[in-house]
Amino acid sequence: MNKNRLEAFSDGVLAIVITIMVLEIKVPHGDKWSDLQILTPVFLSYVLSFIYIGIYWNNHHHMMHTATKISGKVLWANLHLLFWLSMIPFSTGWMGENNFGAAPMALYGVVLFMSAVAYKILQTTLLRCQGQNSILAKAVGNDKKGLISPLLYLMAIASTWVHPMIAGVIYVLVALMWLIPDLRIEKIIEADKTA
Amino acid sequence: MNKNRLEAFSDGVLAIVITIMVLEIKVPHGDKWSDLQILTPVFLSYVLSFIYIGIYWNNHHHMMHTATKISGKVLWANLHLLFWLSMIPFSTGWMGENNFGAAPMALYGVVLFMSAVAYKILQTTLLRCQGQNSILAKAVGNDKKGLISPLLYLMAIASTWVHPMIAGVIYVLVALMWLIPDLRIEKIIEADKTA
Amino acid sequence: MNKNRLEAFSDGVLAIVITIMVLEIKVPHGDKWSDLQILTPVFLSYVLSFIYIGIYWNNHHHMMHTATKISGKVLWANLHLLFWLSMIPFSTGWMGENNFGAAPMALYGVVLFMSAVAYKILQTTLLRCQGQNSILAKAVGNDKKGLISPLLYLMAIASTWVHPMIAGVIYVLVALMWLIPDLRIEKIIEADKTA
Amino acid sequence: MNKNRLEAFSDGVLAIVITIMVLEIKVPHGDKWSDLQILTPVFLSYVLSFIYIGIYWNNHHHMMHTATKISGKVLWANLHLLFWLSMIPFSTGWMGENNFGAAPMALYGVVLFMSAVAYKILQTTLLRCQGQNSILAKAVGNDKKGLISPLLYLMAIASTWVHPMIAGVIYVLVALMWLIPDLRIEKIIEADKTA
């Protein structure tokens, strides 16, 4: 069993998921700048979800790169992850069209939480498939961010009962937590090499 | 003739088919949890169809993996399969939006039946192309599930005259029949290797 | 310059073109079989266009397979072909929703004609790139079907002034002209090998 | 880290971006040629945006082809480019549906400007990753067009205060500036080889 088609299929689904969210940004009928104003929450939701799908694609890319074997279980664990990620456009749309209301904000957290859980399941399934001394096992190490993120999503979901914007802040912070070190770690590795 | 582009094109079509079904889950105008309730049948239909496309993608992946030669006939048999699978989003949408009515449930069965027949045709065409002693011939063996499934779909179609939910139960059972052993067989193979 | 990405990009565009036509088959609100009746022309248009895109994909696959070199001009000739093929969903939709009226039937012919011309330009550009003694040059030979098809499309366009269904019959015949020998030629080659 | 999946994912996103613009060309209800007339600006916008995405795809193809190493920063710089290109369908739709009004014309320029900036960032990130003596560094050379284009987009945005069509003319000229020499340079290289 080779991993090429799994990667190709995942790339296809993620490319579509990241792009169809754009269809949710409906072209306004007026032709003034002010006609775009009502699209602000839809646009901001799109940016956030684009970054999240980007993070998942990047992590998926790195994880699969180190994997040498895949199994039928890996295929299904991967489909399970794609299922939850395919829910992101819908929850993004609901969040954006309702100006970040409490229920849509909570649902967005539920989808992010389920995606994080599905990613963890995929990681575990892949690890079992490779053996404990594999490069993947070393690369994963003690995956702190992968454990903290779902907890933060749960907190965000709970926080919508107080105020939906708390959840919004948490979602942005989690995204930055993944995005920034991603860029910083590279720097350290590079610095390490030239040292 | 190489099989890479056939796989890439099939992956593309299946990735789109599995993802555009999400567009059928229309964002509700209200922002309460109760506004999501009417989407329950649409969501359940989506889950079922997602699993079916997943099963087809998995089986397609395995079958093509063992194939060493393809012909013009294989290309068309493959397009024929993709045609019926491309009908799944429409029939899923009709089923979901009409709360699992009799006619939509029957149409869903017709599409599943035609997809199963198309898969069988593709398998036969591929087998002829590889020769009887090929790995594929051995891998297919006596493909019981591939023969029982279409019969169960026909039963499901007929059952909609009595009650549409009988068909629903059959569709779920067939999906589980493919999904569960898929995961179990891997276990046996693994156990076999370590023994 | 390698041809892999050109093939991958073309596969992506064609996979999307062939699949988004399905979005034109709008889910009816009623849940009776009779509610599907009005979709008959839309469905028939979809089948015809699916076959046409399938033919283009197959021919593109074969042509590119023999090509060893590509140039910037080939990339643009390919994009030009994809442009006209991307017009097929729109013209299919117009044709299907208007029950095969004269103008939609003629427009469908125009799109098919332009696609055929674009394919010819791509072929010529590729040939110039490979040299006259290439495998591609031999494979193309005297491409009768590639020359007759555009003439038949022009005839079809003209015929819509008499009756739009004449054009419909021509479109079906041209599709069969490409589809059937495709399957037959393979047979001859196979017979030739075993002889 | 390999560049194959980055290319595959970018191809997927660009293929979808170039194709979903077609969904903006809504099928008219009437079946007369005159019913298509109101679609003229939408169609012209589509042609222009198709060419722009084509230019980006071509340039992306060439740039990535010479790259030998990629980093996490490259992945994000690439996603950043894809983000702005994914805004093209929306701004194309707004421009087309409002008959090239001032604000939509300016927004189109903003999206093109941001895409050009994002491309430049990707180029710089890639260059840093390859080292100054790489093939990419030589291929980029003094990238005049890459520097003039964003300036022209800014001029176009400003010109919409005078008349939106000035911007339209600039967008067409920039597209031709990229399209025509692309084809001409190939000719010179070919002539050079045969000399």
TrEMBL record, chains A, B, C, D:
Reaction catalysed by this enzyme: K(+)(in) = K(+)(out)
A UniProt-annotated Pfam family: TMEM175
Ranges in coiled-coil conformation: none
InterPro entries for this protein: TMEM175-like
Keyword field: Ion channel, Ion transport, Membrane, Potassium, Potassium channel, Potassium transport, Transmembrane, Transmembrane helix, Transport
Subcellular location: Membrane
GO terms for MF: potassium channel activity; proton channel activity
UniProt-recorded name of the protein: DUF1211 domain-containing protein
